[in-house]
Sequence to fold (86 residues):
Amino acid sequence: MTITLGSEHDAKLQDALMNALREIGASVGAPDWAVGGSQEIMSIIVEVDGIQIQIESETYVGLTLKGDPKIIELLADRTREIRDKL
Fold:
């Protein structure tokens, strides 16, 4: 499953996502970054309860979560709740 949370430039959204990851006890890996033409992409693999989730920030695409539907939906909902309070 893939969910786009919003703009890749939304700093509050990025902060909210990091807070949500901390809340659920995710283990965050090192980011992978690349540029191709006008596209910039950053990808991070996180692990939640032994399940890997991919987080990507890509120009013209946004901030996306990819992986297990239950974890993605939980993480997306919690990220939005936190962002609304920032």
